[in-house]
Structure formats: structure tokens, C-alpha cells
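Researcher: Good morning. I'm working through a list of sequences from a screen, and I'd like to move beyond sequence-only analysis. For each chain I'm collecting a predicted structure so we can compare shapes side by side. This is the next one on the list. No need for commentary yet; just the structure.
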Amino acid sequence: MNADFSRTLALLRQEKGISQRQAAKDLGISQALMSHYENGVREPGLAFVRKVCDYYHVSADYLLGRTLDRDGAVIDAQELYDASNEKGTLRGSVTATLQKKLLVNTTSLLFELLGRTGSREAVNAAGGYLGGALYQLYRMLHRAAGGKDKFFGLGGTAFSMDAVDADMRLARVSFAQALDALEENEAALPAVDSAALSEAYPSLTQSLTQVLHMTEEDTNRLLGR
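Model: Good morning. C-alpha cells for this chain:
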């Protein structure tokens, strides 16, 4: 059984807010065996997998990492909701279409939530940070395609010395400070738990979950986990 199972098993328990001992008791196994399952030391049988699905109200496909939809639906690039209202496939690549939709939808949800905080500082800082990432990627593509640095207002040396990275780091600081200010003022923040997001933004939340999962997978792979 793949590593997604053990990781998902542990995350579902933590999300439910129960101890490993309690989950093991409810599922009819010892805590030691539950620990082995969550750490990937041992693989469970089909009967246990079925119990876990019923216990956490998820599909076997979700538990095994075959889909990010808890009910077992598989994301399709053509069917995925597109917040940009732009239909069709990007020329030459279904993968590009899927990535575009995932990021457009996730960005739409992020700014929808930030807009509800009433913090212009947080919104502007988020825009600056994401804009910097897009700027760097486009400029690298522009350069690789034979474009000249004089097309841009930022000099080539400054760009090569990571000036945009520095601006993005400052944007992250501004974003964190804006969130701190909201907490200090006890501002009413939007609910961001899975249940609330799925109910309010079902289509966008699907994309958000996918983006979070892919990023965590890539990062954990980098860390050797």
C-alpha cells in the first residue's frame, strides 16, 4: 500500500481531533498496530480499510491517494470549474489547461476570503507576492524565447540578483503584519475549515485542495519524506 494511505490515515485522525488510542479503540485494533499503520510500517487488510472509510466518511480512493475528493470523484481538466470563465483547452496541452484552472480557481478563492476580511493591506500584499512569482516565470520564459531584457522596466542585473525575490519577501512580511493587525483588532475572519469552504465554495475548494496536496507532495519529496 502506498505512502498516501498512512499519511492520510494520520491526517484524518488529527482532523477529527482524537488520539491515536481512541481511533484504535473505535476501529477495534491496538494502539501499537494503529501506530504501525499510520507510520507505514505495516499494511492493513481490506476489512480494516473498509472500516476506516466508514469511520471517517471517505472513499477508499481518497484514503489510498487516488483522488483528492473525499467522495471518490476524480478531477478532470475538462470538467473542472473555471473561475476565469474561459472555456476550452489551451493550445497543445491538456496539462496546461488543468494547471491554469487549478491556480485560477485557488487564487479566486484566496482573494474571495481576503476580501471578506476587509483588509486592503492583506489583499495588496497577496497580490504583490503572487504578481512577483508570475513576473519571474514570465520573464524567464521571455528570455528563453529570445526576448531582450530592455523590454522590461527592471534591469537585467537587478532581476538576475533576485531583486524580485526581495520584493516578494517584503510582500510576505506585509501580509503577515496585516493578518496580525486583524487578530489584534479581533476582526471577524471567514471560516476556512474544510467543511465551511466545501459548503460555501464547492467548486473552488476542489481546486484549492488539489493545489495544497501537490505542493505538499513536492515539498515532502524534497525533504525525503
